[in-house]
Amino acid sequence: MNGKASVPSRVFFVHRSHATKQKPVSTPTRATERGTSWSDADRIRDVDAIKLVVAAIEETQRNRNADRFMQLLSPDAVWVTAFGKRLTGWDEINGFTQKVLPSALGDQFATCEVVHITFLGDGAAAVNVHQRPVDKQGAPIKSEAEGRPLYIMTREAGKWTIAIGQGTKLQPESIDAQSK
């Protein structure tokens, strides 16, 4: 030891699989922040609960169930669509969702996969999702851009909800241009 305390990682990488019980690739043995500590078991429960919320997003979109979708959001949530439209608060998000979700997408659906979670504290997490457009049978729709939503989720009374949702369309050509 060099006299410095080791700071455990707060980042969980998630296997890219559609399995129900995905395990984090790396989990800290213990992480502490602002006097609150959590164990591996606590974090694994959190990861599983967060993945269930993301799976519920996929299910609500597939079933065009706007009411169930709204149950996944915090009352004071902020949502930004993939095209940049900002919606603030439950009422505004609900009004938009009730109009768009049931009819606007036709026979287009999406799979949602959690690929990365960073715990921002004991009751907050940044969740990166890969969203792939599929048809009614689950076949990929190659002509549609994939999504890369970011959800800031919070836990209150043991329940994880989305406090902030940022939809983003994947733009590989723009990413390549930025990398040069």
Description:
- This protein has 180 residues and is of the alpha+beta class.
- Helix content is 26%, strand content 34%.
- It has four helices and nine strands.
- It has helices at 40-62, 66-70, 90-100, 172-179; strands at residues 11-13, 30-33, 36-39, 73-80, 86-88, 109-121, 124-134, 150-156, 159-166.
- The strands form two sheets. The protein has a seven-stranded mixed β-sheet. A two-stranded antiparallel ribbon has the order 2-3.
- A hairpin with a 5-residue loop joins strand 4 (73-80) and strand 5 (86-88).
- The termini are far apart.
- The average pLDDT score comes to 80
Distance between the termini: 40 Å
Tell me the radius of gyration: 18 Å
Order of helices and strands: EEEHHEEHEEEEH
Quick one: overall form? globular
| Backbone structural class | alpha+beta
Strand content: 25-35%
Q: Count all strands and give the number.
A: 9
Uncertain ranges: 1-9, 15-36
User: How many distinct helices?
Assistant: 4
Biggest pleated sheet: 7 strands, mixed
Kindly state the percentage of residues in helix.
25-40%
Strand order of the largest sheet: 1-6-7-8-9-4-5
